[in-house]
Amino acid sequence: MALFCIQRYDGEDEQEQEEVEAEDRARLLLERLQQQARARQLKKQREEQPQGREGPGGAGLSPEGEPGGKGKRRRESGEQPGALRKKKLKTKQQPRSSSAESAGAEEAADGSSPTKKKKANRRKSKVRQERTETDSEEDIKQQENRNNFKNKSNKRKKTDGETQGDEKGKKESSEKAEGNQTAKEELALPSGEEANFPPSSMMILGDHDAKPVQKVQPFLPQWLAQPKRVQKRIRDNLCPISDVPGIHPRLLKKLQMNGIESFFPVQAQVIPAILQSASNGYLLGQGGYRPKDICVSAPTGSGKTLSFVIPIVQVLLDRVVCHVRALVVLPTKELAQQVSKVFNVYTDGTGLKVALITGQKSFAKEQEMLVQKKVTGYCSLADIVVATPGRLTDHINQTPGFSLAQLRFLIVDEADRMIDDMHQNCLNQIVKAAFQGENDSGSNMLFQRTKPGPVTAASSCSPQIPLQKLLFSATLTQDPEKLQQLDLFQPRLFTSVYSEKNRDETETEQDTNNKYTLPEGLLQCYVPCDLNSKPLLLLYFMLTMKFTRVLCFTNSREASHRLFLLVQAFGGITVAEFSSRLPPNERRRTMKEFEQGKIQLLISTDATARGIDVKGVNYVINYDAPQFIRTYIHRVGRTARAGEAGVAFSLVLRIQERRFLRMLRDAGIQDIKKHPVKGNSLKPLVQQYEGALCKLEKTVKNERAQRRA
Ligand SMILES: Nc1ncnc2c1ncn2[C@@H]1O[C@H](COP(=O)(O)OP(=O)(O)OP(=O)(O)O)[C@@H](O)[C@H]1O
């Protein structure tokens, strides 16, 4: 448009005169058409419900709701052409290449610039009727305008070179104001071009009101939205073991022998649920149907392990032939070992066999624990397998006769971690192996499993060994998409996660996705500090505050090792480190000594953050603040277990403070106390600490030299 205006100053008066006349003609015609359109729309509106701004009066067409859209145009059209042009020059001197300009003008001439296209599309159906009626008039008009446009386009090419410099300076501001410019551009179009639009399209000009954006409501499946609530308070909600129906007397006796008189809330709810799903024995689900999968999200130390160990042992008590019927997968060796120990306690004397498959023994040894070759074929030596994902997949692929075809329970402990990409493949392999027919193991073909499909009369006739999935975690994801990866069957969720039902639905759903619960006996504190004071703070807690049985977390193996060396060099504290840089037997020994109270401070990586159940941990210190909320929850959950009390301190660098607190707040954790430690309290330690730093330097150098040698 700028170019149209600039032509005026080039003194091409003759052509301009023609243009002015054409414009005047066009304007007159346009006004006539608009009147017709208004009349039609008024008529239409009387027939229909009025539709707000798009009403026939066109009064509300400008974005401001002011009768600006069309009204303004009308006012402008009433001005003298010369005045109008000057005005246009002021409002519109947008830089455009001649081709772009002409393309734009062409689009305008066709009534189909991108903006207009969108708007026109939106109202396409509305205008279609008017269009048909005005088509013939418009055709003539369009032809006229195309001719006008061609002339102008040629002139524009001429003036382009001259105006480029001028336009460049204005480019930035005009780009910024692009949205507004579009409207202005439309207003400034010569009436001949305006007339190219059907009257109702004209009314769209300037109609760029922001439509209220609809909030997307996340859809939670019912089982996630309405879970079974598990009480968080353990001590107030103990349930005597004899009050839980259906527990085998043999197991009741074992529980008592192990000092368990009452079940924790999660156990009181989950044990009967699993038992019920296998009430027809392990070969069929309840009533002959496939049992529902079960997901449990309960705080750290709330007794989730026993809530699957007891019912599984009970369901398998009656088994005749030994097959792998239960498989527990866990992310680390230590956790697998811990869970297999619990199984050993409750299967002891029952004839059920438990195999631990973690790679701690040689592959051949593990194979010997899993299968035995007989004349009739391979037979299983384990009823319950507790395994880490990597080693398990090796056996699935490489151990002849190792079959999961009779698998009844797949237990995924620390399930959120197992759903992570690195373990997901293992879970898929397990399920695939479970639905693979047995080759030479001579299994009972009657109960052989077929891939679940639609329920038909035929499929209901042959009994199936159902594969039931049981998922456990303190931070079980409630992201349906993630859970979907596990292909759960009519899952039931047991959770102690709060969901705020009183709030509006959106918030409830979003919050529930992120919220986790912590043990009731946990006291959380954080200490704002700087980098240099962190070691001193740890020493202060250990020596001045006399903390005992402390589990201290760092974010890396190197950090753990250095801190361990530093504390050792400082002296006066029985300290040990725990990380994957140590061999498994050393880690086991360290953990045992820590449990026995021989080690007062255990400095560890996140290797011990999840699931590890060490009795009597009084304090957890996050020496390095955790980066993820799940890490925080699992770390601090090493204390305050089984309804006991415990304290967690996090050393948070001042620059991390806001992010750290926000992370907790987002997860619904509000009750963390700020616990500043004054610099004066650390002063008595400084001198000795500096000596320790010198020793540390020497030790690190020696270690490097040893590694190189
Ligand atoms: N009914 C019970 N009575 C007494 N102690 C129990 C009972 N159930 C479990 N415990 C003890 O509580 C502790 C925590 O149990 P467990 O390790 O199963 O917790 P968890 O929920 O799996 O924790 P995490 O999420 O950290 O893995 C264990 O030491 C266990 O022996």
UniProtKB/TrEMBL annotation:
Basic and acidic residues bias locations: 127-144, 159-187
CDD domains: DEADc_DDX51, SF2_C_DEAD
SUPFAM superfamilies documented for this protein: P-loop containing nucleoside triphosphate hydrolases (SSF52540)
Bias type Low complexity, positions: 97-113
Gene3D superfamilies found in the cross-reference section: P-loop containing nucleotide triphosphate hydrolases
EC number: 3.6.4.13
Region annotation (Disordered) ranges: 1-23, 36-206
Enzyme class: hydrolase
The keyword Chloroplast is annotated on this UniProt entry: no
SMART domains: DEXDc (SM00487), HELICc (SM00490)
UniProt cross-references to Pfam families, sorted A to Z: DEAD (PF00270), Helicase_C (PF00271)
Coiled coil: none
Biased composition (Basic residues): 84-93, 115-126
Catalytic reaction(s) noted: ATP + H2O = ADP + phosphate + H(+)
Domain remark from Swiss-Prot or TrEMBL: The Q motif is unique to and characteristic of the DEAD box family of RNA helicases and controls ATP binding and hydrolysis.
Protein family per UniProt: Belongs to the DEAD box helicase family. DDX51/DBP6 subfamily.
UniProt cross-references to PANTHER family, sorted A to Z: RNA HELICASE (PTHR24031)
Name assigned to this protein: ATP-dependent RNA helicase
UniProt source species: Ficedula albicollis
